[in-house]
Amino acid sequence: MIITTTALVEGRPVQQYLGLVVGEVIIGANIFRDLFAGIRDIVGGRAGAYENAMRDARKQAIAEIEDEARRLGADAIVGVDLDYEVVGEKGSILMVSISGTAVKLG
Questions:
Q1: How far apart are the C-alpha atoms of 70 and 79, rounded to whole Å?
Q2: Range of 10's domain?
Q3: How many domains does the chain contain in total?
Q4: Which InterPro entries does its entry note (predicted)?
Q5: Sheet of 93-105, strands arranged across
Q6: Fewer CB within a 10 Å sphere, N or C end of the chain?
Q7: CA distance 64 to 1
Q8: What is the CATH number of the domain that holds 38?
């Protein structure tokens, strides 16, 4: 499955637009992750736990749109937009949202 942020896939014309596909993943940050991220922020360095959580959420969201596109008979998703949002009390929830257009290529 080709997944791209561009509107077209070079050398492969779109034969059919199959519809919008959307993936959404919401992850709650646990208290230990928050604690260790805060300590790292104070002493410097990277907040690996948050980076891993964001990476996992992104992979899950991409897998969701890929599964949905396959069900529609697509062989590509074009125009992909990926967004991250922190929501909830004190920003304790990470939401990853991804959308694109499922297409059949020539």
A1: 16
A2: 2-104
A3: 1
A4: UPF0145_dom_sf (IPR035439), UPF0145_YbjQ-like (IPR002765)
A5: 2-3, 76-87, 93-105, 14-28
A6: C
A7: 13
A8: 3.30.110.70
